[in-house]
Amino acid sequence: MQRRTLLSSLLLPSLATAQEAGFPTRPPALVIPFPPGGIVDTAGRMLAERASRHLGQNIIIENRPGAGSAIGNLHVAQARPDGYTILSGGIGLATIPNFRPDLEPRDPRTAFAPVAGTYTVPYILHINRNLPVRNLAEFVAWARQRGAAMNTATSGAGSGTHLVGELFRQRAGLPPGETVHFRGGVQAYTEIGAGRADAMWSTALEAIQAMRAGQTRPIAVTSAQRLKAMPDLPTVAESGFPGFVVASFAGWFVPAATPAPVIARLAEALRAAVADPDLRARFDEYGMQAEYQTGPELAAVLAAETTLWGNLIREAGIRAE
């Protein structure tokens, strides 16, 4: 009996290694912590479709929305660390622990193992078309003069659009003004188009949609380079605020104890997916930037974002919905 137990224990590591080497032997699940139909869901499905070709198994999409991505994040953090439950993670991993340190996972930096970064989404400042400004410098001068009467819309308290707007306000020395939070970007930029709000920072896709619908006028983007979808739109940095480069990040994460060979296999498939020319062209249309980052690079991004937004949230006393 003892001999049989000893043999079994000796065989376990080799069996585990063999299973890891053959990963995946069944369809993995990509958990998207937002509802179907949004840009995070759309991008996640596009990446999963292409990564599936290289894994030899179809990746199944599981939408687990709620609490700004906290529900989906927790589901993956508590999943078995075998590579079959993957998180499509983003800025919520950096902001939620700063808003709600009591929520699990309390520290995503240790709860997850980063697989690879996939894309970034810059923010665009777009304004009411009737405002007497044509560029960012003129907007800043106008906002300083308008003072507390300035009305800024966001897609929700504690959202990325809210945080970026507050960060720019601090860096540019703008007065607080009035901030009105809406439930989603569409409602917010509709208010701008109707003249009931002056300006808004939103994701590039939302700003592009609002501009094409004739509702707003974009004046600057937070990316390091101009967007291919809007080549005439200057960056914030080249508009007089050097160093102001901000983008919402995205990447795949797995539970922390996931074996390294499994993570490497997923990263390999994801690298091929991000390199797909058709995907990159589609992302360009959406104002997104396909950008593969290794696991360590993604970990560094998450750490930096957690510090950046944590400091801002505490200094400005920002509360999430």
Q: What is the typical, i.e. mean, pLDDT?
A: 91
Task: Let me know the number of strands.
Answer: 10
Distance between the termini: 59 Å
Instruction: Give me the strand/helix succession.
Output: HEHEHEHHEHEHEHEHEEHHEH
Q: How helix-rich are the residues, as a percent range?
A: 40-55%
The gross shape turns out to be globular
Number of domains: 2
The low-pLDDT segments are 1-8, 12-18
TL;DR of this structure?
The protein has helices at 2-21, 39-55, 70-77, 92-99, 108-111, 136-146, 160-172, 185-193, 204-212, 260-275, 277-285, 295-316; strands at residues 29-32, 60-63, 85-90, 112-128, 151-154, 178-181, 199-203, 216-221, 247-255, 289-293. By secondary structure, the chain is α/β, with parallel strands linked by helices.
Structural features, described:
The chain has 321 residues and is of the alpha/beta class. It contains twelve helices and ten strands. Helix 7 links the parallel strand 5 (151-154) and strand 6 (178-181). Helix 2 packs across helix 10 (260-275). It is globular and about 65 Å long. The chain starts with a helix and ends in a 5-residue tail after the last helix. Mean pLDDT is 91; it is low at 1-8 and 12-18.
